[in-house]
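Researcher: I'd like a candidate sequence for this fold, 439 residues long. If you have to choose between options at a position, lean toward the conservative one.
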């Protein structure tokens, strides 16, 4: 059985209303045409509109329809897989320091845009906690804390007493606390960004999928079913939800699915004991379980599908319940997972965004690999700089030819998850730590 990713999505049920938009009908002109109204496209269009550039944003569905409206709402300005030393080795300088600087300060940009445009999106910045369910995990977290602190992040290691006071869980031996982490209603944020683009003079057209892009008179004609945009430059920012528009762009990544679930609003007594400081919590296992509250007091938790988990509805809800009550044995009320949905991630080997030079005046950015809210929010600065004429050598991402993701990436993330689960379970048994259920 496959869950419906739209009808049961909490954010589509609770987000602020979308701004009024229409499909593109007829032919218009612009300096820049941005394709895709997720965070990357929205922030790119916003940056350009703020600088007086004539910009048109085209979206096949509605603003935030894809990953920007289906993620779990966590906003942690870190990288999803590689540590900072590995990134420096892989990317080289100056590229590594540039993108590290952008990503680690991404929440500053998020906060600034929310404040500047009065975006009502349940924004809370009470920090992110990655726990250690076994003693041997602490050195790894210490290395993370040291690396990110050296890069300017406000983070530190906390002991088992402080992590219990902060999260209410007695299970952790300590944790990495990143005080700049936040969480939000991600669809409300996307819709707020769309309003901001329009407020700054940008044009947003929804229900307008891009079918083709062709050169015309030294510019580019971006064609939709009912109209076209003639633009000097074109930016594709469609991510995991890329469908057509440019040949083989959808082959530059492989899809990995993630599921998110939300409980009923928990009673006040439970909320006083579980995540009492309203942080975002990661249980620290490689087979992740990340959770936080929304404005209504629902726990919103996410995991990756694995075997029956994600395929069998009843079993999946039981796994979610068992993990949460293991971490928080003080939960006494029955948990009802009232919302359940899937999102899709555009995975590629480096796990940081790839910037592709498609043709003179046309670029694409894909491969965010699951770190969407802060990453998409900071990418607008990079893509808008390109559109404004910043030389390639001065950008924060290296321009490269369109790269086809290997077939291996279709299975590698899933294999890694299984390996991480095995590794964590084996180490926990060796150290005598209590294992979570379904480990």
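Model: Candidate sequence:
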């Amino acid at each position: 059985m496959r869950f419906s990713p739209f009808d049961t999505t909490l954010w589509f049920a609770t987000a602020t209303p979308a701004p009024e938009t229409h499909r593109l009908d007829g032919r218009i002109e612009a300096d820049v045409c941005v394709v895709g109204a997720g965070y990357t496209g929205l922030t790119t269009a916003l940056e350009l509109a703020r600088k007086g550039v004539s910009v048109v944003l085209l979206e096949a569905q509605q603003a935030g329809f894809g990953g920007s409206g289906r993620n779990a709402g966590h906003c942690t300005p870190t990288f999803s897989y590689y540590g900072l030393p590995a990134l420096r080795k892989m990317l080289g300088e100056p590229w590594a320091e540039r993108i590290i600087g952008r990503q680690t300060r991404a929440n500053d940009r998020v906060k600034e845009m929310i404040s500047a445009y009065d975006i009502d999106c349940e924004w809370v910045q009470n920090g992110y906690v990655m726990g250690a369910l076994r003693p041997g995990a602490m050195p790894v977290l210490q290395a993370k804390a040291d690396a990110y602190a050296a890069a300017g992040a406000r983070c530190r290691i906390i002991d088992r007493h402080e992590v219990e006071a902060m999260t209410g869980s007695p299970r952790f031996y300590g944790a990495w606390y990143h005080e700049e982490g936040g969480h939000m209603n991600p669809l409300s944020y996307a819709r707020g960004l769309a309003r901001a683009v329009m407020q700054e003079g940008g044009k947003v057209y929804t229900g307008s999928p891009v079918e083709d892009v062709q050169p015309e008179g030294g510019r580019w004609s971006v064609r939709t079913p009912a109209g076209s945009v003639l633009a000097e430059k074109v930016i594709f920012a469609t991510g995991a939800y890329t469908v057509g528009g440019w040949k083989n762009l959808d082959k530059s990544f492989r899809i990995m699915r993630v599921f998110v679930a939300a409980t009923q609003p928990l009673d006040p007594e439970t909320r006083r004991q579980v995540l009492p400081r309203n942080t975002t919590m990661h249980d620290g296992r490689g087979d992740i379980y990340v959770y936080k509250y929304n404005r209504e007091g629902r726990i919103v938790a996410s995991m990756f599908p694995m075997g029956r988990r994600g395929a069998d509805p009843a079993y999946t809800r039981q796994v979610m319940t068992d993990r949460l009550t293991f971490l928080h044995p003080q939960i006494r009320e029955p948990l009802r997972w009232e919302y359940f949905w899937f999102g899709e991630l555009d995975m590629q080997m480096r796990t940081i965004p790839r910037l592709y030079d498609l043709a003179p005046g046309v670029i694409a950015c894909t491969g965010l690999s699951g770190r969407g809210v802060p990453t998409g929010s900071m990418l607008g600065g990079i893509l808008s700089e390109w559109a404004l004429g910043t030389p390639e050598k001065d950008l924060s991402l290296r321009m490269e030819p369109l790269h086809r993701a290997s077939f291996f990436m279709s299975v590698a993330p899933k294999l890694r998850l299984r390996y991480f689960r095995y590794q964590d379970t084996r180490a926990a048994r060796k150290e005598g730590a209590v294992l979570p259920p379904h480990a």
